[in-house]
Write a sequence for this structure.
């Protein structure tokens, strides 16, 4: 199906474990983003990517790693999960023009025990 | 620092009109977005303003005043399905989106 998808939709893990959240888009958008959303905060940018093999840090990158070997995929890895990383994670993508609209995936609700 | 302010919560009545305000202080300005987010779902695009004035799109309108650092989203003929959070986001000088915390809109019958 066309669009942007995320998996898993829900994940429970334990402190110290490695977790990878997947994001896949079928629009061939050049830009992809990872956000976290917590109560009382706006969406906060973790990492973004302008194209395959090009990634850059956002506002809150510590504890996260990303890669982008293919245009359509942008996985986010928590190398050693902490309770403070319990959150809802959204992936988004947009076209190449700077003011293009960002389109969001359905989100992954992650709980770190 | 960069800052976007929106009311945390608003309540309105079905069939009425509501205005959700957003004020911003950012390093540069390249446009302002409004998104709607229903509980447990992803944000979805509503509008984009880059020039001063009012943009109308059906029951929803968005206004921008760049000199005042101010925008509002106007929702007319409110329906129960409009109960959601409304997110204001500014594209700054580096073309990064800076997000407000969102306004939760509660519609009462």
């Amino acid at each position: 199906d066309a669009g942007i998808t995320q998996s898993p939709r829900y994940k429970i893990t334990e402190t110290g474990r490695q977790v990878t959240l997947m994001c896949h888009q079928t629009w061939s958008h050049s830009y992809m983003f990872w956000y976290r959303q917590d109560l009382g905060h706006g969406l906060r940018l973790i990492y973004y990517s302008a194209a395959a093999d090009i990634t850059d840090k956002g506002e809150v990158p510590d504890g996260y790693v990303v890669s982008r070997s293919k245009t359509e995929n942008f996985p986010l890895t928590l190398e050693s999960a902490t309770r403070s990383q319990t959150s809802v994670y959204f992936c988004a993508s947009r076209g190449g023009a700077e003011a293009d609209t960002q389109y969001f995936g359905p989100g992954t609700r992650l709980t770190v025990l | 620092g960069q800052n976007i302010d929106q009311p945390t919560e608003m309540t309105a009545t079905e069939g009425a009109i509501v205005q959700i305000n957003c004020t911003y202080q950012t390093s540069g300005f390249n446009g302002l977005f409004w998104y709607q987010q229903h509980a447990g779902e992803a944000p979805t695009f509503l509008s984009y303003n880059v020039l001063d004035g009012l943009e109308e799109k059906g029951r929803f309108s968005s206004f921008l005043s760049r000199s005042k650092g101010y925008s509002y989203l106007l929702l007319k003929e409110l329906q129960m399905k409009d109960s959601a959070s409304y997110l204001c986001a500014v594209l700054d000088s580096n073309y990064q989106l800076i997000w407000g915390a969102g306004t939760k809109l509660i519609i009462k019958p």
Chain A has no helices and eleven strands. The mean pLDDT of chain A is 94.
